[in-house]
Amino acid sequence: MSIAHRWSDLRPWLGTLARLGLAAVWLVAGGSKVGDLAGSGRAVAAFRLMPADAARLVGAALPFVEIALGVLLLVGLATRLAAAVSAALFAIYIVGIAAAWARGLSIDCGCFGGGGQLAPGQHPNYAPDILRDVGLLLVAGFLVIWPRTRLALDEWLLVGEAT
Amino acid sequence: MSSRANKKQAARVVRDQIARERARARTLWISIAAVAVLVIAGLAGLVVYQSQRSGEHVNPQHATANGDGLVVGSGPKTVDVYLDFMCPHCKDFEETAGGSLNQMAAANQITLAYHPVAFLDNASTTKYSTRAASATGCASDAGKLTEYVQALFANQPAEGSAGLSDDQLIQLGHTVGISGSGFDTCVRDGKYRPWVQHVTDQALNRGVSGTPTVYVNGKQVEPSLPAITQALGG
User: Fold this and answer.
1) Nearest residue in B to A110, CA atom
2) Helix (H, G, I), strand (E, B), or coil: what is residue A27?
3) Is it true that the peptide bond before B212 is cis, omega within 30 degrees of 0?
4) First-to-last CA distance in chain A?
5) C or N terminus of chain A, fewer CB within 10 Å?
6) Contact, B138 vs B187, CB < 8 A?
7) Which residues of chain B neighbour A37 with C-beta distances below 8 Å?
8) SS (H, E, C) chain B
């Protein structure tokens, strides 16, 4: 079997792995915040990138959007779109964390719940957060380029149709 | 032979064409549905958030002008302290700096404003931050705010626990000398819970995102007694 053949056989399964991995990240991230929407708003406000009122609304909407993205990716519906929205969100998060770092803010990103200003004596560690989001951005990018994956609703809905 | 093959080929091209069109249409509809799902999810978040917010609030006695805190003393300089009764660092701060600040307020050297916020409601199973902060409003009505704040920190529950029950919060009020049933019903009814939400929102609007946070004459300083006395001018 040629390498090209092997890649085209393997790729949809790699895509499944990427899709489910991304779905898990969104479901955990959204699920950890959905029980405390006010806290989620505070975490957004701590970045000081928008007025507190706007941050409250973004903080309330975000966990639900994250869970919805997780569900879409989990079942494999509109994979390319969900992956593109995911990539856009990761890019925004990376910019937000980098901006907090550059301005010397001492906050917790609140990526998986919690968030807000750190207590005195606690030091933020932004690099791992950014690296993680860059990794996730690459995974999402893979799905934007190759959205057809195995075990996906997309595959079933578009069965027999030209790709 | 060649003409039949051509026809077959043409038919296949047409079939492929139709299939591609159909796939495109279906993909479009799936995408529209997915976008709708995301938008609805976001709106659901806003609706849930709005429904969680309580409506009108009443300010306790001795509240600040805009109702975002509780005032002790009437000195020329102001010290604003943002605290959460579930926050261990706030307890440390109260134990090291609280006494001196209360003395300065009692001597009317400073106007001390406590802003009891509910940032850490998720650190207890019963929204202890909100309940305790709400009870301070009741204590302020009874004129025993500083004593009650000290008692709350002295009896701070562990993170992740249920916190003190409403009955225990009432009991604590009695130990600092609050009498009369007004305090008891005030705590039990959660009279000032909407007010705590207001305090928390106002704190956020001011840029407070953690506790303890301290302002001296409107300028943020490190939450420590030396930093505060220095900012007050020795």
Assistant:
1) B209
2) helix
3) yes
4) 23
5) N
6) yes
7) 45, 48-49, 52
8) CHHHHHHHHHHHHHHHHHHHHHHHHHHHHHHHHHHHHHHHHHHHHHHHHHHHCCCCCCCCCCECCCCCCEEECCCCEEEEEEECCCCHHHHHHHHHHHHHHHHHHHCCCEEEEEEECCCCHHHCCCCHHHHHHHHHHHHHHCCCHHHHHHHHHHCCCCCCCCCCCHHHHHHHHHHCCCCCHHHHHHHHCCCCHHHHHHHHHHHHHHCCCCCCEEEECCEEECCCHHHHHHHCCC
Length of chain B: 234
Name which of B34, B87, B201 is nearest A78 (Cβ-Cβ): B34
Which residue of B47, B49, B199 to mutate against A (max A Cβ within 10 Å)? Answer: B49
At a CB cut-off of 8 Å and minimum separation 6, what does A152 contact? Answer: A16, A19, A75, A76, A77, A79
Q: Could A45 and B204 be called an inter-chain contact, meaning their C-beta atoms sit closer than 8 Å? A: yes
Whether residues A38 and B52 touch (CB distance < 8 A) is answered with yes
Residues 29-58 in A contacting B (C-alpha not used; CB under 8 Å): 35-39, 41-42, 45-46, 48, 52-53, 55-57
ipTM for the complex shown: 0.92
Extract the tokens encoding B159.
């993170």
Give the residue numbers spanning the domain of A16: 11-149
Count of domains in chain A? 1
CB contact under 8 A, A45 and B38: no
**Per the structure block, which two tokens stand in for B94?**
């109260």
In a domain, A116, yes or no: yes
> Does the domain made of B70-231 have the CATH classification 3.40.30.10?
yes
Q: Judge whether A123 and A106 are in contact, CB under 8 Å.
A: yes
Residues 6 or more apart whose Cβ sits within 8 Å of residue B6: none
* pLDDT tens-digit profile, chain B (234 residues): 578 889 999 999 999 899 889 888 998 999 999 999 999 999 999 999 988 876 689 999 999 999 999 999 999 999 999 999 999 999 999 999 999 999 999 999 999 999 999 988 888 899 999 999 999 999 999 999 999 999 999 999 998 899 999 999 999 999 999 998 899 999 999 999 999 999 998 998 898 988 999 999 999 999 999 999 999 986
Would you say residue A161 lies in a domain?
no
| Beta carbons of B210 and A39 less than 8 Å apart | no
The pTM of this model reads 0.83
